[in-house]
Fold this protein.
Amino acid sequence: MLVRVNDHIKEAMEKGIPVVALESTIISHGMPYPQNVETALKVEEIIRSEGAMPATIGIIDGECVVGMTPDEIEQFGKRKGIAKVSRRDLPVIIAKKEWGATTVATTMIIAAHAGVKVFVTGGIGGVHREAQQTFDISADLDEFAKTNVCVICAGAKAILDLPLTLEYLETKGVPVLGYQTKELPAFYTRESGLDLDYQVDTPEEIAAIMKAKWDMKLDGGLVIANPIPVESSMDKDVINKAIEEALVEAKKQGIKGKDTTPFLLAKVKEITGGESLDSNIQLVFNNAKLGARIAKEYGKL
Ligand code: PSU
Ligand code: MN
């Protein structure tokens, strides 16, 4: 079987309980052990407490699993050498029957297969700084152009070129909706200085926009940009300085391609003495709450 939807997820769907997808690259490549596993399990708990069903997605022995068990989540957090799997990697990992951690792009693909429309994560990939030279644009952005899943995130990290990321999403026809804000949040901070065209204030409004998009056969996803809670957000100067330093270090070490995002995340954490990791964890929890509510509202339509 290419995609295995576990029984508890199937049952939830039959009963009309809304399902929320979760990715595994954030577990295997986005956070250190054991915080990665603790966070992944807590996110599931938050989604359940909101009356929805979490479905963490990953690839196990070449099988795309929707609704991993806590033990499998633990494995994704602990095991070394689990590949980071984006769209181009997916067929190889499946055919070779390997384990793979799914990025935003791949999680969208597998969620869509299973009929899951809402997906919660921390941050999405984007256009990297200096992409004019490197061509490094995350495959996440192209996935938003074709796969029908609504993704709740805390905006995009300032390790990316945020203005170019917004331009790219516009070109690809992807709605970017600010949740109770008119400004693109920048992951660790609530502000980026970049205006969004649309502010939405309730999960109901978001569900209605999802439905209108897909009823019109406008294929592709939506980005819901949910700012980090004030009490968990970082000082702008502190985080920006850490990011600049991390970027210099990445260049010095010749870090490229798929290694860039995990490298920068780990480096920023090191430079900020772990403060960025705490913020990262809190913003995912905040997104989980909103994602569950959106899934519930969409389920009513
Ligand atoms: N942002 C984070 N943590 C992450 C990622 C992004 O704060 O773990 C992961 C997501 O899985 C995202 C991927 O899809 O990085 C993007 O990688 P790339 O830029 O190589 O496409
Ligand atoms: Mn890349």
In short: The pocket of manganese (II) ion (ligand 2) is lined by residues 136, 138, 257-258, 260 (CB under 6 Å). The domain at 1-116 is CATH 3.40.1790.10 (Indigoidine synthase fold).
